[in-house]
Amino acid sequence: MKLNLNIEPLSNWAPVSNGPLIISGPCSAETEEQLLATARLLKQTGKVHVLRAGIWKPRTRPGEFEGIGAVGLEWLNKAKAETGFPIAVEVANAKHVEEALAAKVDILWIGARSTVNPFTVQEIADALKGVDIPVMVKNPINPDLSLWIGALERINGAGITKIAAIHRGFSSFEKTAFRNEPMWDLAINLKTLLPELPILNDPSHICGSRELIPFISQKALDLDMQGLMIEAHIDPTVAWTDAKQQVTPAALSEIIDGFILRKAES
Ligand code: PEP
Ligand code: MN
């Protein structure tokens, strides 16, 4: 496979000096109060660099909460004004991109259910032509490395050089302890093929339950992944989406305190 991507280092666009980039925030923005309260506590930990929140939610089946929509962009900007966090949202079509850009969102990401569809990724790429914004591309839900690389190529082809991959695990028919099997080899192969590509890990969607998050996070750091996206919520048990896997800001702080940063030690 011949890969020819023009990728900037993470330090060019992410507010991180040494140690992993920590992106956190709720799975979904639910109310202004929920988002602001979560953001405030995340800020107080002193360990988070970027605030995330989903406002357009790709739900597997209809009839569930599908995201608060564009009003969430206003809440995110309020949280940004108060905490100073750069803000990140998932975009799944050209309209999302336009609305996120109009709201001056700092970082975009493409979700696993969008990465699987080259038409969707191309539509997003086309909407990003001529724009200088970081874009993170989650792996597709199925373990297809070419599809992941193809999405990175499409985004890079639109001129986006501030680009990262997020490893969030892969859907599997077999029931295991994980919601999405990590299949670490795929992320390792991606790193081998594109050594300059920053790769982050999303333990929340791999694990599906908060108890496993420290273990998967540590494994990702041991594999030299450059950051973690971990879902946090002011009151995870009553979260409107992904209640089992979100952690409180205090729990997040403890997880981060528990990391063994092998590179820093040597
Ligand atoms: C999310 O980050 O909340 C999300 C929907 O993730 P994924 O695309 O990995 O399922
Ligand atoms: Mn989620």
CATH superfamily: Aldolase class I
Mean pLDDT: 96
Bound molecules: phosphoenolpyruvate, manganese (II) ion
So how many helices?
11
The beta-strand count equals 8
Poorly predicted ranges: none
Going across the major beta sheet, what is the strand order? 1-2-3-4-5-6-7-8
- Total domain modules: 1
Determine and state the CATH class.
Answer: Alpha Beta
Structural class of the helices, strands and pairings? Answer: alpha/beta
Q: Please outline the major beta sheet.
A: 8 strands, parallel, barrel
- CATH architecture term: Alpha-Beta Barrel
Overall shape: it is globular
**Rg, alpha carbons:** 17 Å
Beta-strand proportion: 5-15%
Q: Keywords, please?
A:
single chain, 266 residues, TIM Barrel, 8-stranded parallel β-barrel, 38% helix, 12% strand, binds phosphoenolpyruvate, binds manganese (II) ion
Descriptive account of the structure:
- The radius of gyration is 17 Å and the shape is globular.
- It has helices at 32-45, 71-83, 94-102, 112-115, 118-127, 145-157, 184-193, 203-207, 213-222, 249-257, 262-265, and strands spanning 21-25, 50-52, 87-90, 107-110, 135-138, 163-167, 199-201, 227-231.
- Strands 1-2-3-4-5-6-7-8 form an 8-stranded parallel barrel, surrounded by 5 helices.
- The protein is an alpha/beta fold and 266 residues long.
- It is 38% helix and 12% strand.
- The protein has one domain (19-258): Aldolase class I (TIM Barrel, Alpha-Beta Barrel), CATH 3.20.20.70.
- Manganese (II) ion is lined by residues 27, 231, 241-242.
- Phosphoenolpyruvate (PEP) binds at residues 27, 54, 58, 111-113, 138, 168, 202, 205.
